[in-house]
## 1
Amino acid sequence: MTRDMRGLGGILFAVFFTVGDVLLAFLATTALPLPTAPASAVVAYFQANPAAVWSVAVVQLLASIALLVFVPAAARRLEPGWQRTTASIGGFVAGAALIVCAVLSGVLAIGAAGGWSLDVIDGLRTANFLSGGAVHVVTLGVFVGALSLAAGFPKGIRWFGYLAATPAVLGILSLFFYYANVFLPVGRTLGMIWCVAAGIALLVGTRRR
């Protein structure tokens, strides 16, 4: 039974991301525009909510760092091979995508305040949405799903991993069908819960069985 303190990363990933949602709810004075909203609405939002934007960007950056710390520790529960490789790639891309999302939020805040072209703002907003939405959630699902395919964690965590990975991976359909966006928040939430459970297993040194 080996304990790995990097399991704390899985817990902090969920904690920091949730803190970001709470900060957004408390600090934002207007609703975040949908991806289909005109660029002028995006500019208005970022101009009106600089505190919310920067606060959420910072905690999302912390969440991504926590996830990147957690990924190699969790992947080590798998035997070397395609499953470990798939889990590692999925986890690292999920963390990197969240970093890109956080950075783009800051860039959008600067651009909105600086009067950048609406075409540029629109492109940045699309990249921001995709990196923090479909790219992050789908690859998080790949990470969780790959880890659940092998006996690297207790059976209960593995079975919950199947449940969490399914809507997360199905989130890729959001790139083609608008209403498939419903998979993204569901997959993200279940994926974060799985990371908390797996993180606790690493911290206490739960045996692989």
Note: Residues 5-204 form one domain.
## 2
Amino acid sequence: MSPPSAAPATPSRAVTVLITRRVAPADAENFETAMAGMMLAAKGFAGHLGGQLVRPGEPGSGNEPMLFHVVFAFDNEEHLTAWQQSPERAEWLARVGRHTIGDQEMRVVSGLDYWFAPAGSTTKLPPPKWKVACVTWMGIFPTVLLLFVTVAPYLQSWPLVPRTLVITGLVVLIMTWVVAPRLTRLMAGWLHASPKSKD
């Protein structure tokens, strides 16, 4: 009798941490310096995909003055947990905390949820997965079609791997900074609609 097969491993998904911090105007420069150190420290941890500080007034920052948003991304939850439980993060949190007002607000989203998280929001839940899939397709289909018509003809002589690398890289860039934000605003009422209560 053959041994029972092991259960298939659950595929890991990238996770993004969205953090909101309120900063006193006089402490803004010191806060940014401390955050730069914290983000540099995070780069040394396994699975780190990137980080970004969104300053007040920048696109996606919302309308509240002196409200900073911080984004950290890791390739899976295990690597994120390793960073969150590290002494390095604890040390930098203490430094950053000296220049903030009140507690930080934090939300963790995974996979494509980050594209459809309300800008500047740390309280709303991500939309249902099937809605994310629908709107993702609505954005990716015209984006890929456009790239096939405009860019792909110039890459016909390239080998398959670098050609695919360029096309998929452009899809991600266009989706993240151009298409997804606009689709999110356009479809916000449907994406984040509350379920209808049953009588």
Note: Confidence is low (pLDDT under 50) at residues 1-11, 119-123.
## 3
Amino acid sequence: MTPVRPALDPELRELLADMPLMSQLNPEVLAQLRQLPSTPVESLLAHRQVERREITVSAKDGAQIGLSVLSPVRTERTTPAPCVYWIHGGGMVMGDRFSQIDIPLEWLDQFGAVVVTVDYRLAPEATGTTLVDDCYQGLLWIAEHADELGIDAARIVVAGASAGGGLAAGVTLLARDLGTPAIAAQMLICPMLDHRNATTSSRQYSGVPGVWTGEMNAFGWRAVLGDLTDEEIPAYVSPALADLSGLPTTYIDTGSAEVFRDEDTDYATRIWAAGGQAELHVWAGGCHGFDALFPQAQLSATARRTRTDWLARLLSLPRESGDVG
């Protein structure tokens, strides 16, 4: 029997009709997906006055991790800028540092923010805490080079979408537990937070083709967890296992018609229960990643504008170039 599911937003349903969807992910399909072209970041930067710097940092095991630093060109010395540390999505098994980069570039436009994005290693080649540790090393580098980058170390926002949202949550937990660096906020966009994959929404979006299904989610988690038993899984890898006290202010959004709806809602609820501050948006009819896939949709424009408004309040900054969307 087909489970009852929240209906897709009509505009998104029409757009998805032209997109090839699948329900399963396996090593062969993953290899094919990894051959697809990367996001053409040059075209996104062409109309912007942006300085681009490519650097590498050493991971805990000595591997070299790439960071791209995208800074607005400044004609004169100004006050230090906020920084958005962007962690890309892709189920922890695909994507690169430029995946979904159009999202944080809006904040470069709006607030003059410096955007730093990280090329963490992917599963299944990397497993366990390797991915989140790679991201944490990038965050440490930003904090250590704040003056050089022209950023305000008190206004570093860790942000990510999907798997990147889960890794952003893990990085924020690491920074809390290790006492450094200070993070002003975390923005978790449809985050992948719970390896158990056992919520109502994960069941609703299994057994049916989609952008990201319960079966695909299980594949991604198997890839990153490797041989770890349930008792060995660190909360930095599966943040839903963590104590959520003492976290910086948090923004979470998700769609009503997607796998991660319930674990994302639960994460916000548990932050509140621990005395923290979180803003939660569940976009009615939104599928997984709808605003990244279809930024032209009305629901996407609303979701993106709402995030930017939240950042404006958080950073106490005027906008520089009007409304998003």
Note: Residues 318-325 have pLDDT under 50 and may be disordered.
## 4
Amino acid sequence: MGVPLAGSDDYDAIARDMAQQAGFAYGFVNLFLNEQTFVGLHQPAPGSGYVIVGRTMSREHGWCPEVMNRRRALPLPDVHASPRFSGNPVVDAVGIRSYFGAPLIHESGVVLGTVCVIDPERRPLRDATRIRDIVIDCGTQVMTHMTHPPAGPFRTTRQP
């Protein structure tokens, strides 16, 4: 299918742009392999006071497994507002308060992974649609990049 199996500068750029457009500390392009593998990763700089994450995580942790099962976007402006989603190990390990994710669905119908942003600050409900749309748009960029890789360096198409 032409999907990456490790970190990639192109997908790191998508994760960074997605996080910056949404105003979130972290952004991920996440493929579900033996574990969740962040082929695109944006996070705060070391020494910033934020938790620094690696490029992999258990397939059971976080909210991306729910997005994979739902096959549609999951906006959680405040993960503590839902008992179903507040008991996740990522809440305590990384201190996450808001999550927005969208599935990466290949043209064959296979869900490959997700794109998502997370942040230690909750978001007002009035911002939920805007942030959800940013994440969905970035998911579309990822799938386009996977199925039709550019000849030169990756350039994002959406402007903040």
Note: Residues 9-147 form a domain with the Beta-Lactamase fold (CATH 3.30.450.40).
